[in-house]
Design goal:
Radius of gyration: 32 Å
Strand content: under 5%
Number of helices: 6
Structural class: mainly alpha
Largest sheet: 2 strands, antiparallel
Number of strands: 2
């Protein structure tokens, strides 16, 4: 721009290269934002799944302790709940599907005792979790995984956009370098300026 303001690469002027360079900032900010969103969505899925897993392990033990010796049907159904070890995501979800109706029936059985007893809850991080909350966690898991999938797709798109922009900028830089290298005489300030341009390893310096 300083030594050869009229130099063009095809129809592209120095201002076009500057616009490409200036475009890196917004693209990087967008990429960081998409990364933050994907990370947040991932954490939400993990937190939800971990809560389901923890409740799926502890609540059956509580139900068994409270009613296992007096309610044969609940005891039998708990054996079905224990069929899934609740380690992988599918196992955790399968156990939740089996556990929720048993939990609801256990609450009904607790209320039928004399005197009536409170529904079964399990406190996690200071929050008492009920059967209804457990169902909300289970139903919400699909929505959370969908949000996470969308966030990952948006992140991938932002990465691809940045890579494409980087390639376009790099290509224009190299084309300008090749033209400038062949256009300026060694004794000119423009040629000296070309010599000072940092190049990638393997890029030949200008020669007379």
């Amino acid at each position: 721009k300083q030594h050869a303001p009229a130099l063009k690469i095809g129809t592209l002027e120095p201002a076009d290269l500057e616009a490409l360079i200036d475009g890196f900032g917004p693209l990087m900010h967008a990429l960081i934002a998409r990364q933050d969103e994907a990370d947040a969505a991932h954490r939400a899925v993990q937190k939800n799944q971990l809560t389901l897993q923890w409740l799926g392990v502890r609540v059956p033990q509580i139900i068994e302790g409270q009613l296992g010796g007096t309610d044969e049907a609940i005891t039998r159904d708990l054996k079905e709940v224990y069929r899934d070890p609740a380690v992988t995501q599918n196992q955790i979800l399968n156990r939740a599907v089996r556990l929720h109706p048993v939990w609801v029936r256990a609450d009904t059985a607790m209320a039928a005792l004399t005197p009536p007893q409170s529904p079964i809850t399990r406190v996690i991080q200071g929050v008492p979790h009920t059967a209804a909350m457990y169902l909300d966690l289970l139903n919400g898991h699909v929505a959370l995984t969908g949000t996470h999938s969308d966030a990952k797709a948006a992140l991938k798109s932002a990465q691809a956009e940045l890579v494409a922009h980087q390639r376009a900028c790099d290509e224009l830089n190299k084309r300008w370098y090749r033209v400038a290298k062949a256009s300026f005489e060694p004794e000119t300030h423009a040629y000296a300026a070309v010599l000072r341009i940092p190049t990638e390893p393997g890029t030949a310096a200008p020669t007379p």
